[in-house]
Input
Amino acid sequence: MDLFGDPAIWLPFTFAALMGVSILIYVVLDGFDLGVGLLFPFSDDDEKDRMVAAIGPFWDANETWLVLAVGLLLVAFPAAHGAILTALYLPVAVMLIGLILRGVAFEFRVKAPTKYKPLWNNLFFTGSLMTSFSQGFMLGMYVMGLTWTWAHVGFALLTAVFLTVAYSFIGATWVIHKSEGYLQVKAVDWAKGGIWGLVLGIGAISIATPYVSARIFDKWFGFPEILYLAPLPIVSGLLIVWLWWMLQRMPFYNDRYSWLPFAAATALWITAFIGMAYSFYPYVVPEKMTLYESASAPESLFIILIGTAFVLPTIIAYTVLAYTVFRGKAAELRYD
Output
């Protein structure tokens, strides 16, 4: 296969890579602010305010990556977009309602009269839960090939629970980095419990994935293919051990290193994503439609690529600027 000579090959591959990176960035960045919302029931009112302040400057920018990923899927792989959204129409609708509810509750919890603040806090948690659970359900159904059977739905519900707990874990690591004092100590305890959701989720998907098709099974356990995949579980295991070791020793005496758990959690997400990308490539709809079969015409993709060359750096620059300007510990969230 001439990956870089034939536009009908390298253009779909390029857009698949861009879409994959967008999804990965979204899962990490919006994952932590969804996770913060999921931790609301375990915090008091003052802690909720500080937790919202920790995500306040970032959450809008984080969701931009989801819009980019879905947009790329629509324009670059329209046939796959139709197949995926048709199969996942209901969980996608639940996710969108959850995202809308989160956005409204985020603003109203600060601006509404004090007596209504608990209501909006609860709705912020509800929106976070709906979004996380629906994304986990979609992940499970995607791994199972987007076919609705009782067994596949059961697996999807399992991954929904695991992903929700995993989001709470990465949210806790973000709070560790952005807070101090008693809230930071509580966030360490939350992370100790939440890490098992991430571990069990990765484990469940890792067990199920090779049995989705004989092709993926051979990719995992054939020789020499097994040598290509072997570094991923090794690195993942080391990252989990390192994370657990850090959490047992936090808060660090030197708070400069409070970012390390979040960085290690991000690295763990990356290894899991690489494993999935390796397993399902070249299919964009598992075992049904490859990215080359579902791609738009090369002429269209080339024009879209020109636009992406302007849009993507803008999104990256905005994201980097936001995280640079609002680095350090979260301050009190104020709108006046």
